[in-house]
Every structure is written in structure tokens, then in C-alpha cells.
Design brief:
Order of helices and strands: EHEHEHEEEHEHEEHHEHEEH
Shape: globular
CATH class of the largest domain: Alpha Beta
Bound molecules: magnesium ion
Largest sheet: 9 strands, mixed
Helix content: 25-40%
CATH topology of the largest domain: Rossmann fold
Length: 265
């Protein structure tokens, strides 16, 4: 992971947009700061497309896609995306409605069994807004030990489910998407972007374990400083890292991108 000062203009020139995580990256302690929010407007004013990419629920994505200065919201670790289309909102789900309902029924059986085995790990308080996954709260309002979290993930795998671990949650899903495949799929469906090209023309900014697929797939990747906590768990760390955590780190990364782009015009 190299400091932002070493980021060169050549790496920034091909960019059409920025894909960014929410909790621990854009959001500070789960909330927006003025400087982070302002960075979104600044990036957008410079012509960059903005894609929020989060493990948070589809229901939250529907809201931010309508209200924030962003082009797409990719939610539930890639499974469901939203695009504002004038006054309408397009839902880009990887599954048709009926298949989604059937898969959810199976998933709820898996989760019921996990809940019996791990009664001390609560469900996250945002599950009602979810379509594709069920999420356990491991560090948002409680502090579950790493070993117990690892046991939960192993038990889910034994049941045939996949898991993603973020800074606060463990997501359990029967879907095949991850943040990278889900983002590329959403960009292709929304804008006809070529999947391979998108990986070289969008930068990614993240902070934790459920960002791993994006750190591996996108060519230009950034971490906010709190990514250091996850560095030994990531098979590919971000290429560049900000000196500041969470929203302040995001603002520093945005500022560096904007300075370089301004120098080229
Ligand atoms: Mg995060």
C-alpha cells in the first residue's frame, strides 16, 4: 500500500468513475460528514460517475440512489443495484422476483439453524430492508470475538451458504455475486460498459473484508487508513492508502484525484 502522494496522473487519466464503500469508508462511525459528502459533489462536478457499493440493504440503496449525488447504488455485496432514471428508480436484481422469493425461503432456513447454534450473535437491525442476504451484527452494537465470528462463517459454509465479513457485519447469502461482479454487472446493465474495461476505468475505495473482491478486480484501488486492521486478511491490499480514516480518508483520496485531474486540463 503506497501513500496517496505517489499516485501519478497516468493512473488517473483513464478514469470514468469512482466506486466506493459506505461503512468505514465514506461514512464515519456510520454517519456522513460534511467533508465526505462534499467530496461526492466535487467528484461529480469533475464529470466522474459515482457508484456506492455496500453490504447495506437494498432498501437503503433505493433511498440513496434517489437522494444522493450518485449514479448507482450497488447493495447487499453486489446482489441488488439501483439506478435513478429521472423520477423512476430502476432495480437491477441478479434474480427475477419469483426466484428471489424461493431463494430467500431457503436462506431463512439456513439462518434459523445458525441462530440456534449462535444464540448470542444478534441479527443486524437492518434485515427488514434486505432482499438477498441475512446479516448478523458482530461489531456494530456488540463485540463478538474473532474466533466466534470465524465459527459462524464456517457453520454457514457447512449449510451451503456464502458469507462476507465487513467491519461490523457478517452477511449470509445463497447468491453468487460479490461487490466486484455485482458492480460490473450493474455498470453493464445501466450504461452498457464493457466488463473488462470497467475494471480499468473505475477506481475503487474501501476499508475491509467485504471489499476484497474489488481490491483484487479493479486496477486502481484505494484504502482509507483503517484498512490497516484488515491488511493481513486481504489477499490483495489496496494499491494506495490515505493517511486518514473513514470519511476524512475518502475526502483525501477524492482531493488527490481531483488535483491530478485538474493538472491535466
Ligand atoms: Mg466498509
Amino acid at each position: 500500500m503506497r501513500p496517496l502522494a505517489e499516485l501519478a496522473l497516468a493512473a488517473v487519466t483513464p478514469l470514468r468513475g469512482v466506486v466506493f464503500d459506505l461503512d468505514g469508508t465514506l461514512l464515519t462511525d456510520g454517519a456522513l460528514t460534511l467533508e465526505a459528502y462534499r467530496s461526492l459533489f466535487s467528484l461529480r462536478e469533475r464529470g466522474l460517475r459515482l457508484v456506492a457499493c455496500t453490504g447495506r440493504p437494498a432498501g437503503w440503496g433505493a433511498v440513496i440512489a434517489r437522494q444522493w449525488p450518485i449514479d448507482l447504488a450497488v447493495t447487499e455485496n453486489g446482489a441488488v443495484a439501483f439506478r435513478r432514471d429521472g423520477a423512476r428508480l430502476s432495480v437491477l436484481d441478479s434474480l427475477p422476483e419469483e426466484a428471489r422469493r424461493a431463494r430467500r425461503e431457503r436462506l431463512l432456513e439456513v439462518v434459523a439453524s445458525l441462530h440456534r447454534e449462535f444464540p448470542e450473535i444478534p441479527l443486524a437491525d437492518d434485515n427488514q430492508e434486505r432482499r438477498s442476504d441475512v446479516t448478523f451484527d458482530v461489531r456494530e452494537t456488540v463485540n463478538i470475538s474473532s474466533s466466534r465470528v470465524a465459527e459462524l462463517r464456517l457453520a454457514a459454509a457447512r449449510e451451503g451458504a456464502r458469507t462476507f465479513e465487513s467491519s461490523i457485519h457478517v452477511h449470509v447469502t445463497l447468491d453468487a455475486e460479490d461487490k466486484a461482479s455485482g458492480t460490473v454487472r450493474a455498470l453493464a446493465r445501466a450504461y452498457g460498459d464493457d466488463a473488462t474495461k470497467a475494471l480499468g476505468t473505475y477506481a475503487f475505495v474501501g476499508d475491509s473484508g467485504n471489499d476484497e473482491a474489488c481490491f483484487s478486480a479493479f486496477h486502481l484501488t484505494f484504502g482509507v487508513s483503517n484498512v490497516a486492521r484488515w491488511a493481513r486478511h486481504l489477499s490483495v491490499p489496496p494499491r494506495f492508502v490515505a493517511a486518514q480514516p473513514e470519511g476524512a480518508g475518502f475526502a483525501a483520496i477524492a482531493a488527490r484525484l481531483l488535483v491530478l485531474r485538474a493538472s491535466s486540463t
